[in-house]
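Problem 12. The chain below contains 276 residues. Write out its predicted structure in token notation.
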Amino acid sequence: MTDANLTATNYGTITAQVPCSSTNPSTGLTCSAGNEGFGIVFNSPRAGRVEVCADFSHVWQPSGTAGALYSSFKIVKTTNSSQSVLAESQNIQTDGHSGSVNIQELTPIHVCGQFDLPNAGQHTFRLFYQQVASGAAFTASSLALDSNPGSAASNATFKVRTIDQVAPAPVLVGSVLSDYTGVLKVKAFTLDGSGNIVVNYANLSATTHPGTGHFTASFGTPFLAPPVCVGVGHDNGGAILSGHIESATTTGVDYHVANSTVPVDIPPSIHCIGPQ
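Solution.
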């Protein structure tokens, strides 16, 4: 679809151009060679998935004799300097009329297509159509394009929007979880009574059991500063236990547990939170 009288206006944050007829590359909002085409050319800042939509009015003029007309529209991706199709939308909108009434009518059309852009850079999309007619019922089939404010104006628009998301993982800063202005990470683990790892949510690289009631653990990924750690000893016998963190450094934690003052090998669960 091309017309030498088409004019275009840019809206949005990315400058667009109009595609040109035949093998002529786009040159802006008008074509230096060839006629202006019905479509959009733009430079995408990145690869990703986009949705391209076109809104326009299709006009048909019947002749008063019996017959039918069916016009189908869809968005296609082409090379910039040809009509060669690189990808096409599966969404097709069809305007169909039959009969012999001699009245001109306009039908609003909204058609969209989703496309994967393999790279950043220039991409070209055009509106393609296919038309089937029977009988001599229609004398004209075209798009109604007239931006004259003094008449029954009808223009056409092309819109492009990204429909995927590229964003870094969220960072909780000054949130309800902490007043710390960086990122806090929680590490948690459980050992058995011999110091072996039972549950490891801390990326532990090693554990030791130096003596009764004494456990140590080393973090595979260190904290950026010494964490705050708490430990709990598990005992099914109802004994009164006393556990404490002997030390907590960026690389590991040292924990002791006792029944009153007597060290016991009660499996500990330890939670640490700190910057990472």
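Discussion. The two ends are 58 Å apart (CA to CA). Students who got a different answer should revisit the alignment rule from Section 12.3.
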